[in-house]
Design brief:
Shape: globular
Number of helices: 6
Distance between the termini: 35 Å
Order of helices and strands: HEHEEHHEEEEHHEEEEE
Radius of gyration: 17 Å
Largest sheet: 7 strands, mixed
Strand content: 25-35%
Length: 244
């Protein structure tokens, strides 16, 4: 694979595009650059990762050339916006990537994009704080450009879409989402509801019950068997009958 076009950073509104053929983790490299003073809009992009990771310390399959493995550095100042950033990025990417896929994109709380039953992309948010304010946030995204050999049921963008065109669709949308302040708006909550993979389904994690959408804080609303509604703000969503 070749390096991205030298004009891609400017086309996508990036401050810098740091491309490498192989890294341990784009997330770790982004934190290193941010610690050294990298500006908002710095993107770390790799062809492959040796130690890519998802939420909860899970590994992420990052085969060479099989996907887009990246982490975007931003320097937001609003802690409330950080609470919903994974959901905002998911909404932005679903709109940006859907024209590049063979099917409608659904969102699985809090950070996964699906086409049908197959996972297309995942999002990982890691912030570093100075006292009570975020100093930077690393927005990690992995998008399948082909179905990984290890996960034959996964989804991918269409194979005829050049890598740089996928980036041109994604990056402005991600930057715009990261710049939004505050909690989710009613319009954002409505957009999530239109793509919600879990609504009305029985789940066992993060708490047993029936998934009933999200609220403005980004919490997953769960109707429990005795009728109470619980707002889950952490954890992963596992459907009844599905392996965790």
């Amino acid at each position: 694979m070749t390096a991205p076009s030298p004009t891609l950073a400017a086309e996508c509104g990036l401050a810098r595009l740091a491309y490498q053929a192989l890294v341990g983790s784009t997330m770790d490299e982004a934190h290193r650059l941010a610690q050294a003073g990298a500006k908002s809009g710095t993107l770390v992009l790799a062809e492959a990762q040796e130690g890519g990771r998802g939420r909860g310390g899970r590994s992420w399959v990052s085969e060479p050339g099989a996907g887009l493995w990246m982490t975007l550095i931003e320097r937001p100042r609003d802690p409330q916006a950080l609470d919903v950033l994974a959901l905002r990025i998911g909404l932005a990417l679903s709109d940006a990537l859907e024209p590049l896929c063979n099917g409608r994109i659904s969102l699985k709380w809090p950070n996964d994009l699906f086409v049908g039953a197959g996972k297309l992309a995942g999002i990982l948010i890691e912030a570093r704080w100075r006292e009570s304010l975020p100093e930077w946030v690393a927005i990690g995204v992995g998008v399948n450009r082909r179905v990984p050999e290890a996960i034959p049921g996964a989804a991918s963008v269409r194979g005829d879409i050049p890598r740089d065109d996928v980036l041109r669709a994604m990056l402005p949308a991600m930057r715009n989402a990261a710049a939004q302040p505050g909690r989710l708006t009613p319009e954002e909550c409505a957009r999530w509801a239109e793509r919600d993979l879990a609504f009305g389904r029985e789940i066992v994690e993060p708490r047993a019950g029936r998934a009933m959408g999200i609220d403005a804080t980004g919490a997953l609303l769960i109707a429990e068997p005795r009728g109470a509604v619980h707002a889950a703000r952490s954890g992963s969503l596992v459907f009844a009958g599905e392996a965790p």
